Amino acid sequence: MSKTITIDGKTIPFEDGQTIMQAATAADVYIPHLCHHPDYTPHGSCKLCTVKVNGRNCSACTFPAAEGQDVLNNIKELTDDRQKITQMLFVEGNHFCPSCEKTGNCQLQAVAYHLNMLDDHFPLFYPHRNVDASHPDLMIDHNRCIFCTLCVRASREHDDKDVFALSGRGINKHLIVNSISGLLKDTDMDMHDHAAHICPTGAILIKRTGYQVPIGERIYDHQEIDAVSLATEQQHGE
Amino acid sequence: MYEHLETAENRDSLKRVVVDPVSRVEGHGKVTLLLDENNKVQQARLHIVEFRGFERFIQGRPYWELPVLVQRLCGICPVSHHLAAAKAIDQLVGVDPENLPVSADKLRRLLHFGQVLQSHALHFFHLSSPDLLFGFESDISKRSIIAVLADYPDIGVQGVKLRKYGQEVIRMVSGKRIHGTGAIAGGMNKALSKPERDYLLEDIGQIIAWAADSVALIKKVHCANLPYYDDFATIRTNYLGLTKPDGALELYHGGIRAKNADGETIMDHVDYCRYNDFIHEEVRSWTYMKFPYLLSLGKDDGWYRVGPLARVNNCDSINTPLAEAARIEFKAHGNEAMVHSTLAFHWARLIETLHCAESIEELLHDADLLGGELVAQGEKRYEGIGVIEAPRGTLFHHYQVDENDIVTKANLIVSTTSNNMAMNESVRQVAAEYLSGRELTEPLLNNLEVAIRAYDPCLSCATHAVGKMPLQLELIDAQGKLVDKLTKHSDGNIERHNG
Question: Which CATH architecture has domain A3-81+229-237?
Fold first, then answer.
């Protein structure tokens, strides 16, 4: 008999070594997340996937599933916290969905819709951040970076390149690239790298492709992020 | 003409009357009048008191964002900004208008006809028809679309549905009624599907009939109030706009034609990419809106009007039959000369509305809308200029980019800007001819707004809150003491405070 945990009262099987996130995804249970990707080492930084395990807050993407865990996921307390976390991500950067080319394909935006985020709530920081458009095919809009490190991990673990890293701490944390000039053009980044396609927001973009997908055909035009996420990540998990 | 009323000499000793904000227009503006002790107007100005800063904050952004970013200038005519920017960035990817794929060109035209149709319908029915149907000095309770719907339900409903149809055209082409996508550098991001085309074809016959009715309505209203409608706020001006190569009315792409008040050609079929050689802008300290003028005629004489009146005055013909017949009637009313009546803006606007409806029908039967090549690509360039006839007139977008595709410079001449001097002149004409010497009342002051409203100004190129515009009038005596104050709250209640 397989081992099980419960999530919101539903019994979910798991295998040794699986995280709560992996077990949940396999069982069709969506736990909101932004920094998690099934192909890469969990990072546990965005905190959106926080669940209560036997009454204690844990990151579902890093916490191992263990026999007998009673996990709470879709409860008001956690949904409220997740909404606040998402609002903080919005106000900390410059996220202007109306003109952003990632609109409709953006995980940050889709999670905000999923969590019924109706406003920013907190005062906007309006940070001064740069756009690095030096690369012929790629662009980094630092205004939209949420420091999920998916590009860092994709470049290191998939592309074998180590193009990205985070530098600084706290509010001074920022994304840097591996070149003396500090510009993307002087790295060995290529537009076909996995790191170029993994950003959950509009921070890393393929140049000259914005708005080519019409409204109605974008990822989240007809499906919410829970359905999209489960469908794509279950495939990755196979 | 009335320029002597722009700046009074003894301003400190005059009474000041302020209409703030001007209502039933797009955006935020105010009118100030300075009166002497006999209520004679000594100074009248239309001030545009908001500052948007788009030209500055789009610097540093990648060029492909422009059509979507700058359309946020406006909630009424976003498509015009979207398409003007798209025409400019076409050039950045090396695509000149003649090289745009045929399907993309027609889809953009359909989108633009939908836009002009809905914007004109909004302006005439929602914003201006209360003045025209109930009278300029009617009770304030009559001055809204709600009163039109109550007293003239057929006209009101037709207006709402005409606008809705235009919005639906926009939605089918760009995905949303307001602020969709669609035009991208070198083309469009989708064709029209057959179900979308068939959906639009369902109602187009009715839309054309209603648009024709609206032309008949405005003609009747105009001609029933002569010579008042020919004289009110009327000023003799130059006119500027795009035309087709054969001189016919054109809204999407053409050469620039300018005529003077006598109908003589100042320039014709000029490539709009050279606009900077013949149009300059003057800045005045009391308003955020600039004053464009034709360089060849100078600041004093070179100002001009744009928009429906300019276009219908300037063109030699209209290439759809019902609108052309309406244009011929319009020109006959003006004895074939230039029509300078400011209230004739409404008439010309509805002729264009009819033209848009007819053109939409024609395009919907064109198979090119349903597919074919949608995007072209050429050699990268560093400068792009897009000019279009927006509902309110000629709209210029001019961008420069660097080697990394980032915008380094932007210049936008928005249609309403070109009408700035003319609106001020019309305000001064009304102040001098209709208000001067009379005791000012709120209905009387609506005359000033009627004059401004005829231009359909988009003062911010921003969204508009119909019926919610607060209005405050202050009457201050020569000693600076508040004599009288009328306040209209956003809930429609009016309050009077005697000083």
Answer: Roll (3.10)
